[in-house]
Every structure is written in structure tokens, then in C-alpha cells.
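User: Study the shape:
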Amino acid sequence: MKHNNSYFLQLTRSIFNDEPYASLSRNAKWLFVVLKELEHRYTSSEKDYFYRSNEELARDAQLSLVTLKKTKSELLKTDLVVSWRAHFIYDKDTPKQKLSEKRITCYRLS
């Protein structure tokens, strides 16, 4: 766990008062909170990012897939979250490394 605490999350207050974050929608602020929880759960001192598919993240945030995509787009315009697309590799031992069908997004939070 990133902050070595299983009961609390650490959030920046700037999302409530400071521009450009104060003008974020409620859904964008909620998604940031959910991403912070996932960061807390899935990162460590060795790995400072985590990944989720859009379907998993929509389920985590209790948002529809359409709302998630719109909200994620809004949040990614800020410097709070950095993301990039990735694929899993099926088998590293084969000469032809086939990418998986499952597309995921990796996230690193500021």
C-alpha cells in the first residue's frame, strides 16, 4: 500500500478550491477519488502505476461506460492523472509475441 494505511486516503485539497480543478464536474472529482483508492490498493514502492480496463474502472466508479469515458477525458485534461494505453502479452517465450484482446489503461497519479 502506497501510504501504509488501510483506513484513509490522501487527497489534494486543490481539487475543491484551486483552478483548474475547482471547475471539474462532480463525476470527474469522484473518478479522481476512485483512482486514488485504486492507486493506494495497487501501487507500491517498486511500481508507481496501476492499470484498469474501462469496463473495470466503470464498475469501480459505479459509472456507465459512456459517462466514464466522458469523465475520464475531462480529468485527463488536468495534471492530476497521467495515463497511457497498454496490452498484455500472452506468452513471452514464443517468437511471435501476440498482444491480448484486452486493452487496458495504465494510470499514474500526481
